[in-house]
Amino acid sequence: MRVADLAVIAAYLLFITWFGAQFKESQKNLKDYFLGGRGAPWWAIAFSIVSAETSTLTVIGTPAISFAGNFTFLQLILGYLLGRIVISILFLPQYFRGEMFTAYELMGRRFGPKVRKFTAGTFLLLRALAEGVRVFAVSIVVSIVLGTGEVVSILVITALTLFYTFEGGMTAVIWTDVVQMFLYIGGALGSFFLMLHLIPGGWPHILDVGEAAHKFQLFDFRLSLSASFFHRAYSFWAGLIGGCFLTCASHGTEQLLVQRLLAAKNERESRRALFVSWAVVFFQFALFLLIGVLLYVFYRDTGRPAPANPERTYPEFIWTHLPLGLAGLVIAAILAAAMSNLSAALNALASTTVMDFLRPLLPRQTEAYYLRLARWATVAWGIILFAVGLVARHWGRVLEAGLSIASVLYGALLGVFLLGVLTKRPGEWSAIAGMSAGFLATLLLRPYVAYTWYVLIGSLVTFAVGYGTSIALREERPATANV
């Protein structure tokens, strides 16, 4: 047990929990608790978006990809940019027509209450399953540091994050995200330069070894409509098209990230935060892929056996090779990524539960009542995510497991949002039929295609079946629709 490192980790955990709890007094109503009072600057929201879409999966999973493979994962980031352009044109103008708390209020306006609850329920299921993988991922790191079992590790992180999210709401989430993002990016930069120092020959040697092993291959333009093409998760076409649809779904329809866009002061600041977040995401993925290459060169040169679980490679290297104190700081940075994402998920799950399900059933209550309800919904989801995290220990590679679980449900969500925004004919039952078909199609085709294609398949099937059903049923535009 390295006392200096453990002291750094403990100090970080105590500080961030205390810091998040300081925002308790500013929580007066649901707008404060779920949207931060719409008072955060655009740059803080941009960093919060990055923290929300980053987690321990990114920090320990991305180096594992380049350690075992190459840089082709970065092709997804090109799709992320294209997806942000689509969101800024199609979705943001709709979200800022009136005051919305959740993405699914838009579906209620367009189709009616059944579709609002169906899409909101889909999000709750999606985020609970995907967040369970992320909660488990952090237990890998904590168990390496403390030698504790996974159950204790999951419990500690969940409990601390739940405390400050319960107290400070969205304001605490945004500002702790900012602190934690700088910490884990700084920790990654520190570990990068120290690895560079530990490898004899420095950067020229790393370039030679990496190029010989094709580690820096970025693009894969092979185009063939064969089974092998759709099994390649990281081709240029899977990255551009699949990444675009994935981003449209995650940032345009999922409450976890839409909530941050809604927290901006206006549409212009929301759009600015969205695009600045892409630049930061590109930088951090490139950095973690470079770290994976450095790890590959280090283990190759030293002849040491790499961990059997690729996700343990980066945290084990940190804990065993970095100087006292600095190792604790970098491990704290990894925990920061986990806690920032978990706090975002807790607040988004609570907001969807209260605004889309409970508040319509409990009208004409006071703001104080709804605020208490929001806080206890946060506690309930903390307990659920702890339980899902325990089950997620058996779901395989953490990064791809998290992305694939989300992608199965994203397709139907994006498809019904596109159906609502781009068409006028379909009504509630057509939308529900389309979503059901999109889920089924993605599940049936899942064994035959890479996860990067799931969202495209699900959204196209949802849109086509939804629109086709509206023609068969001779539906007209719903009288209540105002999108």
Key terms:
single chain, 483 residues, mainly alpha, Sodium/glucose cotransporter, 20 helices, 0% strand, globular
Shape: globular
Low-confidence segments, given as residue ranges, are none
Terminal-residue CA separation: 59 Å
Estimate percent helicity. over 70%
Structure description:
This protein is mostly helical and 483 residues long. The protein has one domain: Up-down Bundle (Sodium/glucose cotransporter), CATH 1.20.1730.10. It is 76% helix and 0% strand. The protein is built from 20 helices and no strands. α8 crosses α17. The longest helix has 49 residues, at 150-198. It is globular, with a radius of gyration of 22 Å.
Compile the SSE list and pairings.
Elements: H1 3-21, H2 30-35, H3 42-53, H4 56-68, H5 75-90, H6 92-95, H7 104-110, H8 113-146, H9 150-198, H10 202-212, H11 227-231, H12 236-252, H13 255-262, H14 267-302, H15 313-321, H16 326-361, H17 367-391, H18 398-422, H19 428-445, H20 454-472
Helix pairs in contact: 1-9, 1-16, 3-9, 3-13, 3-14, 3-16, 4-14, 4-16, 4-18, 5-12, 5-14, 7-8, 8-9, 8-16, 8-17, 8-18, 8-19, 9-14, 9-16, 9-17, 12-18, 12-20, 13-16, 15-16, 16-17, 18-19, 18-20, 19-20
